[in-house]
Write a structure and sequence with these properties.
By secondary structure, this protein is of the alpha/beta class. It is built from 15 helices and 19 strands. The N terminus is likely disordered.
């Protein structure tokens, strides 16, 4: 996040700016009585460091303030054996390195790139918290109290991924903003395909040659590598894929995976990416019922069982517990403990069997598992692995931290394809949002790479009832 909202600050500073005595850049005033420019202060919440442990270098020309409460919260999270605990440890190590490098204490500001960083132990406005009915003993409220104290000294923004914390801070008069690791595109969110209007001559040339220069189509430069375009000219249309500098016409024969055929152009685009061995990383985003997991599993079976292109289909899911329903509280061995989290994969296999039979699906899973062609595991077990000649499906990727994304992709060996599926509008992890989860970060970071493809599915294809529910509820 490079742009931070500015709030009204020191009245003397505002008056000086309005009077023209304080300017920056060329033509700066030489009035010796003019006050120095006051930099924006950024108060970071714990949730930001959990979602992005490297965020301390993400702010330009600002004074970053860490309330001591944030260090306490990170300390309480560091022993967790999940992504949150790993992020907490990473953030603490980064802060510790800065402390040691700058003489042993962060009580005074130290330089971090073009910004500064310090840990604040004073200026917590407890009386203002009490006046508004907020408990000063609450860590979240103490962070707001610290932001209130900083706002009395300079323009201050509290940055947090916790919506409730932002609401409370804004209510008390502190500007609040969400942190995002991804590059935002306010005009449009990339969905992996677009419809472009063109001329009849362009369509005729495309069908004659099988490809056409992207610059020959208005808006063609906006379509990235391995993204798709529906070219229209009146009643004529063509489905194309951007490869290099050209739009290549898709085959008249729609791809098929394990007997599964696409029901929409979006699913057709997804299958093109899933069945292309040159595309080593695929991201499928979409609401429930759009077929993300089903397409990924079908493509995996097709390439592992039918074509022997990969040795095994490995399906991984994050374990995001609800309440006390963590894996340790479930009875049985590890396989039985993981079974509730893998039921969605079982349901996808049911839909792929000839008679949509649960018993047939169970037999197929057991047979492929025994032959070593299928494995169902938790993302937790990926650490330390090296994935060779496998097609790997990471389901529910929207519940993964961006740091876990890096862990997964650095496990990828030769001849391996990784498919991420998820719904960025439905996130269960407490410190993640639509823009800073692993699936969103991947789509933005890898866009335009030759090895990557991304499609957002929007049409619900599960059933008429599911489609109506998605549209009306």
């Amino acid at each position: 996040m490079t742009d931070v909202l500015r709030v009204t600050g020191d009245p003397a500073l505002v008056a000086a700016e309005r009077s023209g005595r304080l300017t920056t850049g060329e033509g700066a005033a030489t009035d010796q009585t003019a006050p120095q420019r006051v930099r924006q202060r950024i108060v970071l919440d714990t949730s930001v460091l959990i979602a992005d442990p490297d965020c301390l270098t993400a702010f330009d020309d600002a004074d970053i303030v860490l309330p001591l409460t944030v260090i306490e919260e990170l300390d309480g999270l560091k022993n967790r054996l999940d992504d949150v605990g790993r992020s907490a440890r990473t953030a603490l190590r980064a802060i510790e390195e800065l402390r040691v490098r700058h003489g042993g204490s962060l009580a005074t500001a130290v330089q971090v790139g073009t910004s500064s960083l310090r840990i604040e132990i004073n200026s917590v406005q407890k009386h203002r918290l009490v006046e508004h009915g907020l408990d000063p003993a609450s860590p979240d409220n103490r962070i707001i109290g610290a932001a209130l104290g900083q706002a009395e000294l300079a323009p201050t923004t509290m940055v947090s991924n916790d919506a409730a914390l932002r609401i409370k801070a804004a209510h008390l008069g502190v500007d609040a903003a969400e942190h995002s690791r991804t590059t935002r595109h306010p005009d449009r969110k990339s969905v992996g395909w677009a419809t472009l209007e063109t001329g009849f001559d362009v369509i005729d040339c495309l069908y004659a040659a099988g490809a056409i220069d992207a610059d020959a189509v208005d808006g063609g430069s906006m379509i990235g590598e391995n993204e798709f375009a529906v070219l229209r000219a009146g009643s004529q249309s063509a489905l194309t894929r951007r490869v290099g500098d050209e739009f290549e016409l898709l085959s008249h024969t729609a791809p098929e995976a394990w007997g599964l055929r696409a029901r929409s152009k979006e699913q057709r685009f997804a299958l093109e990416l899933l069945l292309d061995p040159a595309i080593e990383v695929v991201a499928l985003d979409g609401r429930a019922g759009t077929g993300k997991t089903l397409l990924a599993i079908a493509a995996g079976f097709e390439q592992v069982v039918e074509h022997n292109r990969y040795e095994r289909l490995a399906v991984y899911r994050p374990l995001v517990p609800v309440g006390r329903a963590d894996v340790g509280y479930l009875p049985g061995g590890l396989e039985e403990k993981l079974d509730p989290w893998m039921s969605a994969i079982h349901d996808a296999v049911v839909a792929l069997t000839d008679h949509t039979s649960s018993a047939d699906a169970r037999r197929l899973i057991e047979e492929l598992t025994t032959r070593g062609q299928l494995s169902l595991e938790s993302v937790t077990f990926l650490r330390g692995r090296s994935l060779q000649r496998q097609i790997v499906v990471i389901d529910e990727a929207q519940n993964l931290e961006p740091t876990t994304l890096r862990t997964i992709l650095t496990r990828v060996g030769q001849g391996t394809k990784v498919i991420f599926t998820g719904d960025t509008s439905q996130i269960d992890a407490p410190y993640l949002g639509e823009s800073n989860n692993a699936l969103a970060v991947l789509a933005q970071a890898f866009r335009g790479q030759q090895c990557f493809g991304h499609i957002t599915l929007t049409a619900c294809e599960r059933s008429d009832v599911a489609s109506l529910a998605a549209e009306l509820l």
